[in-house]
Design brief:
Blueprint (H helix, E strand, L loop, with lengths): L28 H16 L23 H4 L3 H19 L12 H4 L16 E2 L5 E2 L48 H10 L8 H10 L3 H8 L7 H15 L3 H4 L5 H6 L7 H11 L28 E2 L40 E2 L21 H10 L10 E2 L2 E2 L31 H11 L15 H4 L1
Antiparallel strand pairs: 1-2, 3-4, 5-6
Helix pairs in contact: 1-3, 3-7, 3-8, 5-8, 6-8, 11-13, 12-13
Bound molecules: heme C (2 copies).
InterPro entries: Cyt_c-like_dom, Cyt_c-like_dom_sf, Cytochrome_c_Peroxidase/MauG, Di-haem_cyt_c_peroxidsae
Protein name: Cytochrome c domain-containing protein
Main location: other
Length: about 450
């Protein structure tokens, strides 16, 4: 799957689909309590059986760090502490006063009404102190990050998840390049970034002190929390991480597809056919990376195997950063990520995103180059059969993979649907593309069955 690294990555959906949502963690008291709480909340939530196996433990974005005094807490105290942090975290998430400009909150780029992705269709969002600066990447959804594993160069599933001997290659971590493992470390990035919130620990502390929720913040983190900017800043990051683990907001599993898996909804002909094409190893083969089946222990699919993969997304010439012809966003090998710099096998790879709620997004791929699912699907179907539709043509020659220098092309995925050449039939025709898009629309949370779910329908 990622030649040059392992050459043996198994993408044949079946085995990948065995991966359990979350690997067992270190068993921290609070993490366990959190998991238990998630389960409780998830269970209360719409009574969906799908929620059963979801929050089984800490993952990259979850597992709040247990501090010494917390370790001695009773379960009830832990719950109360998590509840307080979540409430404060929510306030922080929507608070633009944390930013240097005073105009940008986390929610500005991660809108709750759009699956916590942007409300507008800009490829990259505007930020910085003048609100005119841009980065190089599209803002992803914040939903279903709870089961992203910590980044590993060589990921092995545990034996009961799949086949322990299979090296799944680079997998996991938060952001498009997997460069941080925890929600708290991730939150630090936009808060301090000069082209995003452009703040400092001191500014953040001043903002929180002056905020209407300052007392709640003190109640959650202790009387003396404001004594140091560093301590306050760390608490802010922790509260944001805790908020991002609210199951009913961030991983509710309430899509039509979840209802379908639970036997509580039927897919239309088009949606069913789309699912078939999505799964078909010779057609879309989408499920080899965007897992669509429940795991062995019944946990709902995350629509990602969290692998970092190079698929040769075209250069987005609309991005200011790309005006420099020598600039390339190479994903895991840099420039945003620095620890794998110079490791050629990691160049051009980006973490496979979940497709849950993807129909709410308005920009797709790491550089936000496409703005409709049709365009994305055509890219998958015709990248190799009709490259001239996606890449620049000069003097009659197509400059394929124009956002990845040729010396890294060995990293590109070559399995279906990327196994064709010019002249071949596209992997998917227009009708199939339409049906896959119809299927992707069943992955949006908040599905309401026409007749009230849970009663007579369940008996059928
Ligand atoms: C200016 C827009 C913007 C703002 C404001 C912003 N983000 Fe993001 N967010 C992004 C972008 C872009 C990425 C992808 C970054 C990358 O890959 O380097 C991202 C990635 C993330 C991720 C990782 C998602 C994944 O799929 O791994 C999380 C979690 C996140 N943001 C949370 C937050 C929080 C919490 C805040 C507020 C403190 C915030 N963001 C503020 C644009 C923004
Ligand atoms: C070899 C693994 C692989 C296969 C097969 C694959 N994808 Fe992807 N998918 C990815 C990766 C990696 C990305 C992110 C690439 C990037 O931005 O550079 C992605 C991104 C996407 C996105 C954009 C999501 C977003 O939030 O921006 C959509 C939609 C998508 N894939 C749908 C599909 C469909 C439909 C298929 C089948 C036709 C498919 N994928 C097949 C790995 C894969």
């Amino acid at each position: 799957m990622r030649p040059g690294l392992t050459g043996i990555r198994n993408t044949a959906g079946q085995r990948r689909a065995l991966r359990r949502a979350v690997p067992a963690g270190k068993g921290a008291v609070l993490a366990i309590a959190l998991a238990a709480m998630s389960l409780t909340l998830a269970a209360c939530d719409s009574g969906s059986t799908a929620a059963g196996g979801t929050a089984t433990g800490p993952a990259a974005a979850s597992s709040v760090k247990v501090t010494a005094h917390e370790a001695g807490q009773t379960r009830a105290q832990v719950y109360e502490s998590v509840r307080q942090m979540t409430a404060v975290g929510k306030q922080l998430f929507f608070d633009a006063s944390l930013s240097g400009s005073g105009k940008l909150a986390c929610a500005s780029c991660h809108s709750p009404d759009h699956g916590f992705s942007p409300a507008n269709s800009l490829s990259v969002q505007l930020g910085g102190n003048d609100m005119h600066r841009t980065g190089m990447r599209a803002a992803p959804t914040l939903k279903y990050l709870q089961s992203v594993p910590a980044f590993a160069e060589h990921y092995h599933e545990s034996d009961d998840e799949g086949d322990e001997s299979v090296d799944a290659g680079p997998t996991g971590g938060l952001t498009w390049d997997g460069r941080v493992d925890r929600g708290s470390d991730q939150a630090r990035i936009p808060l301090l970034s000069s082209f995003e919130m452009g703040s400092t620990p001191a500014k953040v502390t001043a903002a929180v002190k002056a905020a209407p929720y300052a007392d709640a913040f003190r109640a959650a983190f202790g009387e003396h929390i404001f004594d140091s900017d560093d301590a306050t800043f760390k608490a802010v990051l922790q509260a944001l991480e805790t908020f991002e683990q609210t199951p009913e907001l961030f991983y509710p599993y309430t899509s039509k597809y979840d209802a379908y898996l639970a036997g509580k909804a039927q897919l239309t002909q088009a949606e069913l056919h789309g699912l078939q094409v999505f799964n078909d190893e010779k057609k879309g083969n989408c499920a080899s990376c965007h897992i669509s089946q429940r795991t062995m222990d019944g946990a709902p699919p995350q629509f990602s195997d969290f692998g970092l993969i190079a698929i040769g997304v075209p250069r987005n010439r609309a991005l200011p950063v790309n005006r420099d012809p020598h600039f390339y966003d190479l994903g895991a090998c840099g420039p945003e990520r620095t620890d794998l710099k110079g490791r050629d096998g990691f160049c051009g790879i980006f973490r496979t995103p979940t497709l849950r709620n993807v129909a709410l997004k308005k920009s797709f791929f790491h550089n936000g180059i496409y703005h409709s699912l049709d365009q994305v699907l055509r890219f998958y179907a015709q990248r190799d059969t009709n490259p001239e539709k996606f890449y620049p043509v000069s003097k009659g020659k197509v400059r394929k993979f124009d956002d990845l220098p040729q010396r890294y092309w060995a990293n590109l995925n070559t399995e279906p649907p990327f196994d064709r050449k010019p002249g071949d039939k596209p992997t998917l025709d227009e009708a199939e593309i339409k049906d896959v898009v119809a299927f992707l629309n069943t992955l949006t949370d908040g599905y309401q069955a026409e007749d009230k779910p849970g009663h007579s329908a369940a008996a059928n």
